[in-house]
Amino acid sequence: MGKYLIIIITIIIALTISAVVTGNESTLRTYGNDGLDSGGIIIEYSHTQYLILGTYEGNQPDHFLIIRIVDINGQVIESIQFPEYSLFYYENFGHCIEASDGGFLIVTSIFVDKGDSDLLVLKIDDSLNEEWNFTFGGPFIETGHYVSAIDDGGYIITGKRRDANESSDLWLLRLTQNGTILWNKTFGDSEDNEGLFAKQAPSGNIVVGGLIKDTVDYTTQAWLLLVDIDGVEKWNKTYRGRISWANSNPILIQPNGTFVLSFSHETKDNNYRSSWLLQFNENGSEIKKENLHHYEGLSIYASDDEGILTFVLSRSGDILLLKLNEKWNIEWTWSSELIKQDKRFGFGAPNQLDAEISSESIIYVQTLDIFDNDWTTDIAFISLSILDDDKDSYPNLIDRFPNNPREWNDTDNDGVGDNGDEFPNDPSEWKDSDNDGVGDNDDILPNVKHIHSQWQIIVILMLILISIICTYLYRKRIRRKNKRYF
Fold this sequence. Notes:
Layout: H1 2-25, E1 27-31, E2 38-46, E3 49-57, E4 63-71, E5 76-86, E6 95-98, E7 104-111, E8 117-124, E9 130-136, E10 142-149, E11 155-162, E12 168-175, E13 181-187, E14 192-200, E15 206-213, E16 220-227, E17 233-239, E18 242-245, E19 251-253, E20 259-266, E21 273-280, E22 286-292, E23 295-302, E24 308-314, E25 319-324, E26 330-335, H2 337-341, E27 353-357, E28 361-371, E29 375-385, H3 454-485
Antiparallel strand pairs: 1-29, 2-3, 3-4, 4-5, 6-7, 7-8, 8-9, 10-11, 11-12, 12-13, 14-15, 15-16, 16-17, 18-20, 19-20, 20-21, 21-22, 23-24, 24-25, 25-26, 27-28, 28-29
């Protein structure tokens, strides 16, 4: 009986350890019904809770805003729907930030009539009750894509505004803390233009990013502007080609006043996209750029060590997280094995992907295609632990040796880290004691240089034997000669 009890306890302990390790690696939850549900904004709601902004499908084809409050494991604690606001498109849930006076500010686009949409600005308090709202629009299309706080307690909003000529302009608005519009301005010419992000730099100026869409060949250009606090343009730059900005968080304002931007460039044959990182100062001068080949940029964030964390989309449709050092060299890469293993998920091309990053974890949300009996979309919640127990700059999540600061990778999966493995691509070898290029496991004399196989030993023994025989015959011949002489 005691023997079996020990076995049972051992199994329980093993399962417990396994569960803990799995939880530290990654947590995946999805939210949604049978229709098209989307989401891509996540904000820390409290120390252990998060707010996720998304949409849900009502009576087709109507879609509405939904806010979910979830815990650190993605378990839904509270869900608030806003059925009074019919959205212009199911993925266009807009943007959400913490309000300067508490609560949250949501910017999105609501359906009006016959393809018309208006800008909606919605203020909710900490308890998720609506405080105020206003809509802004005319007889055509007005959309809101991005909102950010500025140092006077107000907000900058950007989106697009379409006129009677069927072309749209980049639209920029400045609001007070209570939602009063101080000014709104449009930028653009006869082509289709739209604003996708706007953030205030330490100087007080506003960095604005958008797109210029050619109405003839439908190619797009990345458009970068700097305006002052009154919306007066100081300079603008364009990047030609098939360009798209990272779709959720494409800009990172640095403490030194420079800003890092992420956009993707598509080849002329539409074969693949590559992600570009650009660093500018406020004069519009380019400081640094880096091409992350074969990836499409999704969002960028600052890391604790002056590097960058960036989510990208691979050619195969996998969402990857890249850690770049301060020189923008890739230190490590992570991809979601949980999403790969779940056969329901198809190509995970998110309209938006947003993350909350702390010193211990990365939690992000995205929209996933679901292929069960029919095509639908759900919101995915993924939680990653980025604890680094051995302080080697490689988090336990991707560190094959989380308690060894000298090792973090094992390319050949032989249990010996690459730094200490003299044969990092050979799973059967890891040590070469005599430095003869042959691993100890295959080397029959691992401490004798240049002799490492049985055939070499046989040849050497044969040579020794031949030498002995020759010596013997030679001496025998000499003795015979000496006998005849005497």
